[in-house]
Write a structure and sequence with these properties.
The protein has about 375 residues and is α/β, with parallel strands linked by helices. It has a single domain (about 10-115, about 205-380), classed as Peroxisomal Thiolase, Chain A, domain 1. About 30% of the residues lie in helices and about 20% in strands.
Length: about 375
Amino acid sequence: MTSVRGKVAIVGAAETTRLGVIPDMSAVELHAESARNAIADAGLTNADIDGVACAGQSPVAMAHYLGITPKYLDGTTVGGCSFMLHVRHAAAAIVTGMCEAVLVTHGESGRSRVGVGGWGGAGGATLQAQFESPYGPTGAPSMFPIGVLRYMKKYGLTHEQLAKVAVVQREWAKDNPRAMYRDPITVDDVLNSKLIAYPMHLLECCLVTDGGGALVVVSSDRAKDFPQKPVYVLGTGESSETPMISQMEDFTQSKAFRVSSEKAFDEAQISRDDVDHLMIYDAFAHLPIYGLEALGFVGPGEGGPFIEEGNTKPGGKLPMNTNGGGLSYTHTGMYGMFALQESVRQVRGTAPAQVAGVKISVAQGVGGMFAAAGTVILTNEEV
């Protein structure tokens, strides 16, 4: 079986110039600005790009907007982990000679709602709209946490342990000037914040922001010809389970997380002990707990105590979500691009809250309500 292990590298990575509240830019403009920033980071021009991948907007529209004539297009849109899948698909396309330089873009006016548009989807005809919405759920806060209630009952996860996830994320955010919220918080602060949908309080729910990010992926043979330190793709994986959270095989774990991460670790040929840094999509406070367990860093029911004990905070043995995450850094709606950006920064050694000695970083993304998953393992060492 063909593997992309070490055969491609990220040579350009950048976010939009501003993050947070950007009412003067549309979603398309956010895509374009992040694209231009990443292309510049790679020392390239638009004419050097022959592959375009994006979610939320049509890759045809983005290629046209940027003046790119592509040989490869990827419009895979499966929610917040779409960009992990784009990196995986770009790697396969480059390795097989379909193209040479793939631009992966993200831009979302999640807060200001300027030019949000649409790409894909089926409105009221979706399975969720037919079989879940009639029973009361009205969006992510009332749907995503459904499984955690079963988890709390089965494993004894406490409200304090759940709140600790948000507290630790804020500990990282305080050292990141671009984070939307940087002031320290306590467990009591979290539990005393507004209850949004039981058991989630306001500070356990993701931010709603504007912004974007982009990546440039090329073959490893070319990687040393760029101004930035290359970040090699070591392993990738993707999977899905169900578009309806009510139909999960087990409410206490994500099968999609498990399948995608197992594929990535098998391809990377590393163990969990080899990982120096971890990004797990944190739209809500329970996701890092599910992620730690599904990715094999701890056993079932051990994720909450692991975070509570300080293992993922600054100075901990497994630094996680070091930009502040979707709970404190930014969350435009599809957060996976920002997890990838932070993994790239940590591996490059340029992150605001830099962890010493990072050689391998894992970025884990979720799409929908545990519907899909994507895993990308990155390293700064040639394979």
